[in-house]
């Protein structure tokens, strides 16, 4: 309900709820001329007083009933014993200072309406064992709420920056969906630093998947512009007056660049040329930005970068199909061929499959991102390899995940096909993918669109009760921060370096392994983690304390 406050007549509480009747007409009719009235008898006076008393009694009881109904309605459980809901998030954002909110009446979404919010987490009900109850228990958010209240200085500067029409920044974003999202976030921050208008970022064609999607294919352009209009002016195209035949593209950008470096390096040139083109921004901007710019990163990542309507609608439909059956786990299994090539790890499928990966790696060594001076075993024990299906099954079982749990797999096509997934499916048979959830024809428009398919996975994963990535990565970090931002939904990041030696120990029992695994992950289940504990942490993955504050 948008509002439970009802204006009432202070002189006659609850009376204007009543339908018109002879009695109400009598009570509120104009006073007649005394000459036309007969003398009132004691009986008529008594009758009138009795009627008034009865009316007030009925309306008072009706008011009590209405208030009780509204309260019970607001607190009533949702289907499937839901104990928490997105109301937590909306209420938190609505408490932001008015300076950080946009005017919805003018067609600009308020922050409390613009964020992508998951479906409610399921409550702990039914015949659950203690390990199962412990597994589904959501972490304590410790009172942290979204707080994107920008400083007075930031807001004053916004008046000029948001109307800038002389300086334009264009950015080329590369990589997969979540890698591109990170670069778009940084592009907005850089545009703000340079006091420039931002041209909608160009998504470079992905060489691995061949995806030629444009910004408007993946994200809601108008929503992006409107959400950021108080921070940076966003335009769809460069004005013809700023087009140059030989505009240089700056791609050799060092790592860990600061706002001062950006301003001193590019501002004068941008002032002169009117256009700056940057490429290769991935992980180049420093993680230690001023508080206002950290908040801007959160605003872009969690509010402005809303997926395009077709993606959003299908993603939400698939999430509801998972959610309606009860609590579910979302896994991001990194078992694709390119992952094994890049990490330099063995697949766990045997020598035949490992030889195929080694051959590709030798022919295309530029794809290898793992340490060249480490053996396969050393990489694995150092936590540099993704968990395979067998290891993920043992991990979930040790944590107490019920065998009947529904699991959504957000990974791509695994190298080795069904053989690669068999150990996990044997232990958890209720494993599904978007292809299995979607009805006939629903995914047809997204064929060969890897970014759109990854966005659909993102939406379903966001609404899961538990999310587990097998190998970190950009999607894992993005969901870690997003789930924290919308209420600290359970997020379990496997401590591979500490855990895998116990997996290799054949003498340890399942009960002992379960005890060890739970102890190793007791403090990493999605509860608030301060970003400033390790200064290299990105605010997008660790939004506390810049974007989430403790409020009573």
Automatic annotation (TrEMBL):
According to UniProt, this protein's pathway is: Glycan metabolism
Topology with respect to the bilayer: Single-pass type II membrane protein
What's a single GO BP term from this record?
fucose metabolic process
Tell me which UniProt keywords the record has, alphabetically.
Carbohydrate metabolism, Fucose metabolism, Glycoprotein, Glycosyltransferase, Membrane, Signal-anchor, Transferase, Transmembrane, Transmembrane helix
Where does this polypeptide localize? Membrane
Q: Where are the transmembrane segments?
A: 6-28, 48-70
Give the InterPro entries listed for this entry: FucosylTrfase_pln, GDP-Fuc_O-FucTrfase
Look up keyword Transmembrane helix and say if it applies. yes
Instruction: Kindly state one GO CC term assigned in the UniProt record.
Output: cytoplasm
Instruction: State the Gene Ontology terms under molecular function.
Output: glycosyltransferase activity
Q: Which Pfam families match?
A: O-FucT
Q: What family name appears in the similarity comment?
A: Belongs to the glycosyltransferase GT106 family.
Identification of the protein by name: O-fucosyltransferase family protein
The source organism is: Cannabis sativa (Hemp)
